[in-house]
Design goal:
heterodimer; A: about 500 residues; alpha/beta; 6-stranded mixed sheet; about 25% strand; B: about 325 residues; two-stranded antiparallel ribbon; 4 strands
């Protein structure tokens, strides 16, 4: 008899107004298998899950459950067929008990009224079946996040889930609680449930999953058994690099990067930045005229470092020094006054003010110096805007054009100009060339080079290996909230960066 | 990854006509309504009538200006009517100390209430509608308590009543005060750094924060300003009436103020505001009230007409933002 997998997704297509989110993606899950789904931002993971669980309707391809074609028009229909997802944000009712949450919407009845005794009894049964000793009568809000996560899983199991999707289940858990989760997953596995496990953390994947499927840019890349796949090969699959050709010279506008030896005092020093589990005692230094590249996979803590240094997020502990004096990390305003600048990675959500013109966007951070007696000087504004529109070659009909009408590359230039207006000492750039066409990319890379040559210190966070290799004087690699490695001059190569992103245990140097 | 324009280039790139279309539309509507009434409503086209309209619109106008600033930050202030009542009551019981102390105390009470709103909203991230709704409900109660359990407090104080009933060069005081305040407000929003910050917070709060704008400070100031203007409106109204009626002052004025702001072209989502538009919107509201009164249409008809206008204008704003 032919073996039928538990769940099969074949050639799944999903298109959103012209953008192909899933391009003929295959995914197969066996019963009793823990199968992880990985990929960087925009790879298509959450879209695939939403198609799997009926939240989205696919535009092409087929979905087979136990070999039979199915079509879920809503998550409810998927649930009824045994396909359940447990998301990162636990969507349960804080003020109701554990048992009520587990049986929400399908409470056992007796004579038309809810049978509390039976509900509590059955809830206890489900929890024990997963090895959990949680009191079904406890109010959900009184329990830890880990327990709530387990209860969300228990709810899924009690719904008769044969396919259970866990989306970033450990993001809010402590180390100890993570092991408890592993036990639960182990039990589900032995009961024949198929588990789809989404996580960025390699340790988890290698600890608990059997297979991994890699997606990139909406396409299916590969499915491999994890015990036969080295971490570095997994990273190569995710990023689309050939292990052998990692030495290939990429095409960026950084040109031959000069070897910068830090002869002077360091410009920026960060000590022991700590913030929960996202930042675990990160320290780094950067010098005048130096481009410090920062690499790391999604979730490794790069943006968190940037925001901590800039005072945009509070830290539990840590200090930052600029030019020798300690900075008060209370707010971006303090950081800006001290000479820091921060270009955030999401210009739509944190960068541009959409209703405003180029001029108004560009001068936002510099307004205090363009103002006298509370009135903003139009002439000074115009001077500044003209100067930077020329220098950065910003393509706009005039400073009064609405910023949302500009291309991504030109918008980014306006935002960089916003910071240059302030004449900063140190510039933090988070993915400065993301989502930008080749031409503008090159211009911005050239600009960064120029600024560094002029004495500005730069922290450049990037996901593009070529940019990091060719543009950085030193590279810091982040992993799981820690500084995994620091690479200098000759040590910098795509290969060494990828190795550091994937390594088993944190190392000071490779 | 391919790069996309966030919005297609418009032919008049840089022109702000499309932005202000709602305001031009509202102005056109106002002109039409005034002309129609001029021809068809007896006694409408009369200098005394116009003066009357200007005086009557003053409280709504002041409150609407404050509302414009609050909405510019993406918030809303439902408590303005109750703040008017509190200012009115505080002033009335303070008249024994003199007109100026009474005015100052009334305004201070109003500003403090507004700042309190702003503090709750900015520091604890509670939704503006909830915070100001709480004050809407409780504020009127406070005003009534101050007024000895909701009693009408009549008074006779010519110095105080001057701000409501007096004239300078035969121009009534309310009109003078309104004109000055409107002028200052328009200037502040367009030309000062504070005006920029208000619009930045409403346009993209996170970007504003990262650019060094004090989001908390801006929000508190804006709600305090709304309180101040509501207080001023309450005092002018009370001075005209010659009595403080805690249960009536400012009743339902928040609706007219929000309507005036929205009709004028200010976006409820924040980041795009126009004082001129609000002025036009407030006049439309007032002309409808006055002309319906003069024509003998009962009050409910004016409400229905106003409601239609609001829905129509909001509909126009919606389709524009999708284009």
């Amino acid at each position: 008899m032919e073996h039928t997998p538990l769940l099969q997704m074949r050639k799944i297509r999903k298109v959103f107004s012209g953008v192909t989110a899933l391009d003929d993606v295959d995914f197969t899950l066996e019963a009793g298998e823990v199968h992880s789904l990985v990929g960087e931002n925009g790879a298509g993971k959450s879209t695939l899950i939403k198609v799997m669980t009926g939240a989205y309707q696919r535009d092409g391809g087929e979905l087979l459950l136990h070999g039979r074609p199915v079509n879920f028009r809503s998550p409810q229909e998927a649930q009824q067929s045994g396909v359940v997802a447990v998301y990162q944000e636990v969507n349960l009712l804080m003020f109701r008990t554990v048992a009520e949450n587990i049986y929400l919407g399908r409470e056992p009845r007796r004579l038309g009224l809810i049978d509390w005794k039976r509900m509590n009894r059955e809830a206890r049964g489900v929890l024990t079946g997963l090895g959990l000793t949680i009191d079904p009568k406890a109010v959900l809000g009184s329990l830890s996040i880990a327990s709530r996560q387990m209860i969300a899983i228990a709810r899924g199991v009690s719904l008769g889930a044969k396919v259970l999707v866990l989306d970033e289940p450990t993001s809010s858990l402590t180390e100890h609680e993570v092991t408890l989760l592993y036990d639960v997953v182990g039990r589900l596995k032995s009961q024949g449930t198929g588990v789809v496990y989404i996580s960025h953390r390699f340790d988890e994947l290698y600890a608990v999953c059997d297979k991994v499927t890699v997606l990139r840019d909406g396409k299916f890349i590969a499915t491999r058994p994890l015990d036969a796949l080295e971490r570095i090969d997994l990273v190569c699959l995710m990023l689309g690099k050939e292990r052998s050709s990692l030495e290939k010279k990429g095409a960026t506008a950084f040109g031959d990067h000069h070897v910068q030896e830090m002869t002077k005092e360091p410009l920026l020093v960060a000590e022991d930045l700590t913030r929960g589990r996202r930042l675990r005692g990160v320290s780094l230094t950067a010098g005048h005229g130096e481009i410090l590249g920062m690499a790391g996979l999604l979730g490794s803590g790069r943006t968190e470092v940037a925001r901590a240094v800039f005072g945009a997020d509070e830290v539990d502990k840590g200090k930052v020094f600029l030019d020798g004096s300690q900075l008060k990390l209370r707010s971006p305003r303090d950081a800006i006054r001290s000479g820091l600048a921060f270009l955030s990675e999401d210009r739509k959500a944190e960068g541009i003010v959409p209703n405003w013109s180029v001029r108004e966007n560009m001068t936002l951070a510099a307004l205090p110096s363009l103002t006298s007696l509370g009135v903003v000087s139009r002439t000074k504004q115009k001077e500044v805007v003209d100067k930077f529109m020329n220098r950065l070659r910003i393509k706009a009909s005039s400073g009064d054009q609405k910023i949302r009408e500009l291309s991504g590359g030109n918008q980014q230039k306006v935002l960089i100009a916003r910071w240059l207006c302030k004449n900063p000492k140190f510039l933090i750039l988070d993915e400065p060339t993301r989502g930008i066409d080749i031409g503008a990319k090159g211009e911005i890379q050239g600009l960064i080079n120029e600024l560094a040559a002029g004495g500005l210190g730069v922290l450049m966070i990037s996901s593009e290996l070529e940019e990091l290799v060719e543009g950085s004087d030193r590279v810091v690699v982040m992993r799981d909230g820690e500084c995994a490695a620091e690479l200098r001059s000759a040590q910098i190569s795509a290969d060494s960066i990828v190795k550091a992103m994937a390594a088993d245990s944190p190392a000071e140097d490779l | 990854m391919a790069e996309t324009l966030t919005q297609p280039l418009s032919r008049n790139a840089g022109s702000s006509f499309a932005d202000y279309a709602p305001t031009y539309g509202a102005a056109a509507a106002l002109v039409i309504i005034v002309l129609l009434n001029g021809f068809f409503t007896p006694n409408f086209a009369d200098i005394d009538n116009f003066r009357n309209i200007l005086v009557q619109v003053t409280p709504t106008m002041l409150v609407a200006i404050g509302m414009t600033f609050v909405i510019a930050t993406g918030g809303i202030d439902l408590s303005v009517g109750s703040v008017m009542a509190v200012a009115s009551a505080v002033a009335a019981i303070s008249l024994e100390f003199g007109a100026l102390p009474a005015i100052l105390l009334g305004l201070i009470a109003a500003v403090l209430l507004g700042a309190f709103n702003g503090w709750l909203i900015a520091s604890f991230n509670i939704q503006p509608i909830i915070v100001t709704l709480a004050l809407l409900i409780s504020g009127r109660g406070v005003a009534q308590v101050i007024s000895n359990g909701g009693q009408l407090i009549p008074f006779s104080d010519p110095a105080f009543e001057f701000i409501g009933k007096g004239s300078v060069a035969s121009v009534p005081m309310p009109i003078i005060l309104m004109t000055v305040i409107v002028g200052v407000a328009a200037f502040v929003l367009r030309a000062t750094i504070f005006g920029r910050y208000v619009l930045a917070v409403g346009g993209n709060e996170r970007a504003a924060h990262l650019s060094g704008v004090s989001v908390v400070g801006t929000k508190i100031t804006v709600y305090a300003l709304s309180g101040l203007l509501a207080g001023a409106a309450g005092l002018i109204y009370t001075a005209r009436l010659g009595a403080s009626d805690a249960s009536q002052v400012g009743l339902n004025i928040e609706l007219d103020a929000i309507a005036a702001t929205v009709i004028g072209g200010t976006a409820l989502s924040g980041g795009k505001s126009t004082v001129v538009g609000t002025v036009v919107g407030a006049f439309i509201m007032q002309v409808i009230s006055t002309s319906f009164n003069m024509r003998g249409y009962s009050y409910p008809y004016s409400l229905v007409t106003k409601a239609f206008i609001i829905l129509f204008v909001v509909y126009l704003q919606r389709t524009r933002s999708q284009g």
